[in-house]
């Protein structure tokens, strides 16, 4: 039969059109990079995005051209999220915390034609621009008064550029499978790899993540993405919020607990970030005897969320935790931990144990576990295996890499090791390269780390496997203690033995002032190995 339905195109411009049409006055409160906290709304974002699209076209931008954006979470950045794809160009998010060499690599690799950057990041660009081969124009995200003095060539002022245009502009049309955005993986092994999101994948992903068992977002919410828009597609919040007409708070570049608390108190009901951010915030709230007056839900992902964080949020602050797992390659949502009927009536403690898992997938995501040979494994909550994913917003192929990133059945190897239980709740045990293989058994470094950070005097812990003459590998633990606190190694291992089997207890504990992190704020196991190598570290059994 013929298709008799309308050809509605799943392009992200439709999302902003909807927000401006039906939720125009929903507030967006934003801490500008220049300093002040300003207010705007979806209608104003829509009008400025249109002006930007028009200005970009006048600058010669054509369909499919890449525009690099290096910016913090502000309302202006949201204008770019729609103004760039609306002009037909592709929004390439850049992480300013990357090393200069990596930034140059990805700007050249993506062939960015224009760079749009926040005021305080101009310095980074001054350093790397001579090595960026394709960049023709730079736009500084500020107004005329705050334009920096810089010797960068072809510098334009964003506010001036936009204000010189009117908003009489029709979004560039095209197929929904055209490229919309690019985000590079953090490149923990080798060069970063480009993931190209399409308009369609972003719209479907935003629809899926808004649903009640996922972020459960609505027009009555005010959401604050602490996770930067340049990290893993900004967890898609820049699309999900306008799709449901939610209000937003954009925290800018200030990531201190004081600054985040100030912004959370602007009526935020939902927020999202990696566990480290919340560890610091909870500490700050407790020390200063503060309460959260409007926050109801917090989405925590990017790395494993310790039980202590879930407990403190829920028991001390009345904020419900939603533990999530995802990847840049998955746009990024893979799973969120909400309660299905099967677990709803468990005791509070049992439910917190469920929340330590990363939960279950939304519609559009499918997961499976296999052994190293590709044989499908049981989903009994115990059996660990390689985790594979398939779905509407999962990578098929990386930018400019000829080979597909999926197997013959379309499954993408996530590089994670996981278990899945009978109700579909998935737990990440490790990255496959980080799992510790001791005497033929697998020890989860994540489990060891979570057991250790439950200790009140430990701020951060990282477990790695080191080579051992008898067991192949044995775990050791690198620990950062609270400032001014001393803990004996035995006190730590005794504490951990309540949570893990005896044979999994680390053989050695190394105290450090700081653990190295990746550009996306995760523990860098590679960095730790480099430090140990420099010190010529040997397992205690290998020392004379
Ligand atoms: P990268 O850090 O490599 O840039 P991503 O931000 O895309 O890339 O990180 C994806 C990886 O982060 C996942 O494959 C997984 O190893 C880890 N991860 C994400 N969420 C969780 C979680 N809730 N628990 C444990 N690991 C997680």
Could you describe the 3D structure shown?
The structure is a single chain. The strands form five sheets. The chain has an eight-stranded mixed sheet with strand order 2-1-11-10-12-13-14-15, with helices on both faces. The protein has 16 helices and 24 strands. Helices cover 29% and strands 24% of the residues. The model has no long low-confidence stretch (mean pLDDT 95). The chain is globular and about 70 Å long. It has 544 residues and is α/β, with parallel strands linked by helices. Helix 1 runs parallel beside helix 8, helix 2 crosses helix 3 (75-86) and helix 7 (199-210) packs across helix 8 (237-244). The structure holds adenosine-5'-diphosphate. Adenosine-5'-diphosphate (ADP) is lined by residues 185-186, 188, 232, 301-304, 323-328, 332, 358, 414-416, 428, 431, 446, 520, 522.
Task: Outline the secondary-structure elements.
Layout: H1 12-22, E1 27-31, E2 37-41, H2 42-58, E3 66-70, H3 75-86, E4 90-93, H4 100-110, E5 112-118, H5 122-128, E6 137-141, E7 155-157, H6 158-163, E8 179-184, E9 194-198, H7 199-210, E10 222-225, H8 237-244, E11 247-250, H9 257-264, E12 270-273, H10 275-287, E13 297-300, H11 307-317, E14 320-326, E15 333-336, H12 341-344, H13 348-356, E16 365-370, E17 385-391, E18 412-420, E19 426-431, E20 436-438, E21 441-443, H14 445-453, E22 458-468, E23 472-481, H15 489-496, E24 509-511, H16 525-534
Parallel strand pairs: 1-11, 3-4, 3-5, 4-8, 5-6, 6-7, 10-11, 10-12, 12-13, 13-14, 23-24
Antiparallel strand pairs: 1-2, 8-9, 14-15, 16-17, 17-18, 18-19, 20-21, 22-23
Helix pairs in contact: 1-2, 1-8, 2-3, 7-8, 9-10
Bound molecules: adenosine-5'-diphosphate (ADP).
């Amino acid at each position: 039969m013929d298709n008799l339905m309308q050809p509605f195109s799943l392009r992200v411009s439709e999302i902003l059109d909807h927000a401006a049409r039906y939720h125009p006055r929903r507030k967006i409160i934003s801490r500008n990079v220049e300093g002040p906290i300003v207010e705007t709304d979806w209608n104003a974002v829509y009008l400025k995005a249109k002006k930007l699209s028009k200005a970009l076209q006048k600058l010669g931008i054509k369909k499919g051209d890449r525009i690099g954006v290096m910016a913090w979470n502000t309302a202006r950045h949201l204008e770019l999220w729609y103004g760039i794809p609306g002009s037909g160009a592709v929004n390439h998010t850049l992480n300013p915390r990357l090393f200069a060499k990596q930034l140059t690599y990805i700007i050249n690799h993506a062939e960015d034609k224009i760079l749009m950057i926040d005021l305080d990041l101009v310095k980074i660009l001054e350093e790397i621009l001579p090595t960026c081969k394709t960049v023709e124009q730079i736009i500084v995200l500020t107004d005329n008064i705050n334009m920096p003095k810089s010797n960068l060539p072809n510098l334009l002022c964003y506010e001036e550029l936009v204000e010189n245009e009117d908003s009489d502009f029709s979004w560039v049309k095209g197929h929904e499978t055209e490229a919309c955005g690019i985000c590079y993986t953090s490149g923990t092994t080798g060069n970063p790899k480009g993931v190209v999101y399409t308009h369609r994948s972003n719209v479907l992903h935003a629809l899926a993540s808004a649903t009640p068992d996922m972020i459960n977002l609505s027009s009555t919410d005010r959401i604050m993405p602490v996770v930067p828009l340049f990290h893993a597609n900004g967890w898609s919040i820049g699309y999900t919020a306008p799709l449901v007409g939610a209000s937003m708070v954009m925290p800018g570049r200030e990531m201190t607990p004081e600054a985040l608390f100030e912004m959370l108190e602007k009526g935020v009901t939902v927020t999202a970030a990696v566990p480290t951010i919340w560890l610091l915030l909870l500490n700050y709230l407790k020390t200063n005897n503060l309460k959260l007056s409007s926050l109801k839900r917090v989405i925590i992902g990017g790395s494993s969320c310790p039980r202590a964080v879930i407990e403190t949020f829920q028991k001390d602050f009345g904020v419900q935790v939603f533990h999530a797992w995802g990847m840049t390659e998955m746009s990024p949502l893979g799973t969120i931990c909400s309660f299905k009927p099967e677990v709803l009536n468990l005791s509070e403690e049992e439910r917190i144990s469920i929340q330590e898992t990363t939960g279950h997938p939304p519609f559009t995501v499918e997961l499976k576990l296999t052994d190293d040979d590709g044989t499908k494994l049981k989903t009994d909550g115990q059996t660990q295996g390689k985790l594979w994913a398939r779905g509407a917003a999962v990578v098929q192929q990386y930018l400019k890499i000829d080979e597909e990133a999926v197997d013959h059945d379309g499954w993408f190897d996530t590089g994670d090791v996981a278990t899945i239980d009978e109700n579909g709740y998935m737990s990440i045990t490790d990255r496959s390269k980080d799992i510790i293989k001791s005497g033929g058994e697998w020890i989860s470094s994540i489990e060891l780390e979570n057991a250790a950070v439950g200790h009140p005097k430990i701020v951060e812990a990282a477990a790695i496997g080191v080579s051992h003459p008898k067991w192949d590998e044995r775990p050791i633990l690198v620990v950062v203690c609270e400032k001014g606190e001393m803990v004996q190694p035995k006190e730590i291992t005794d504490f951990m033995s309540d949570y893990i089997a005896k044979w999994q207890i680390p053989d050695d504990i190394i105290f450090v002032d700081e653990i190295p992190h990746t550009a996306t704020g995760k523990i860098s196991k590679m960095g730790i190995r480099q430090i140990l190598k420099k010190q010529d570290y040997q397992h205690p059994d290998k020392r004379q």
